[in-house]
Design goal:
Elements (H helix, E strand, L loop, with lengths): L10 E5 L4 H12 L3 E6 L20 E4 L5 H8 L4 E4 L6 H6 L1 H22 L4 E7 L22 H20 L2 E7 L2 E2 L12 H10 L3 E5 L5 E2 L2 E2 H13 L6 E4 L6 E2 H12 L3 E5 L3 H6 L9 H7 L7 H15 L5
Parallel strand pairs: 1-2, 1-4, 2-3, 4-5, 5-6, 6-11, 7-10, 8-13
Antiparallel strand pairs: 9-12
Helix pairs in contact: 1-7, 2-4, 4-5, 6-8, 8-11
This protein binds nicotinamide-adenine-dinucleotide.
Amino acid sequence: MTSENFYAGKKILITGGLGFIGSTLAIRLLELGAQVTLLDGLIADLGANYFNIKSIKDRVEVVEAGLGDRPLVDPLVKGRELVFNIGMHSCHLKSMTDPLFDLQTNVLPQIQFLESLRFHNPQARVIYIGTRAQFGQALTIPITENTPPNPKDIYAASKQAVEWYHLLYQKICGLEVTSLRLGNTYGPRHQMRHAQYGVQNFLIRQALEDQEIKIFGDGSQKREMIYIDDIVSCLLLLGEKTQCVDQVYCVGSAESITFLELVEAIIRACGSGRYVHVPWPEDRKSIEVGDVVTDFSKLTAHTGWKPTTLLAEGLLKTADFYRKNRQYYW
Ligand SMILES: NC(=O)c1ccc[n+]([C@@H]2O[C@H](COP(=O)([O-])OP(=O)(O)OC[C@H]3O[C@@H](n4cnc5c(N)ncnc54)[C@H](O)[C@@H]3O)[C@@H](O)[C@H]2O)c1
């Protein structure tokens, strides 16, 4: 658990703060008494949504800008004790059809952001959100921090490169970096307009609409689903623990399930929806990573973190949230 007063009064910057993870983290940080600024470029088709921060809108500063907007971002990073760097896209397929979009959204702005930090807050504590996709088709099962990166798409390769940039800036200027290689995260506040990323969330929309969910192949690939509140508690611990500086962590879920079991659990939680097996489309098949099984014992040993939300419970909460708020997400 996070120490009682660690975050009280802390000046914190969250990039991607209007999106799914950033906004949920911001809400929790305000509960803990932090002073929070959200930086977000409201990039088209991503998860930026002012409804996400409705409950805190009068207590949080929002700056609408790209991470690479140096004139705006340079003054913004000054004096921040902690930066949660979450502002990137997660569109695997789009990164393959439009690599320049990936470069312009996830790579160049990140280098510019690191330069802002180098010149205006060189020893800031930075938590970078990487992705399990950096392991691609994992070269060891279970995946650990020692599993070599093996990206299967441009997005994953960029996320790996940007993680390395972060760790390098630690050597260049003293930035205190931690990277969390996040897996499939679900819950309230995710965008639900399309399935270009965060497919696990989009399946919940399909079930709520009583649609037929397409399972590519037999659905036997293993998956891990992490509820957003568990990720937020993990990020808070990483921001607090000094021994996490200069470290990379894998994170996993309480239960290991197959994709088919995930779809069945979603249909149960929503009380509607059906599924059908269809052949893999070529574009999806080419970036499919096979089984995902993670050993996150290093994270637990360093922070005490363990996931506490079981899938059935997390899905019920998520379905309930979207039933009540669908007009803001559909
Ligand atoms: N949600 C998941 O399951 C998951 C899994 C692994 C990794 N991640 C990582 O988490 C991060 C965010 O995920 P999310 O689910 O909150 O996505 P999201 O789309 O809900 O939020 C991302 C936010 O970042 C902003 N943004 C993106 N690029 C930006 C830029 N260059 N400048 C300024 N703002 C920018 C977007 O406008 C958006 O509001 C990504 O880095 C992603 O790789 C997410």
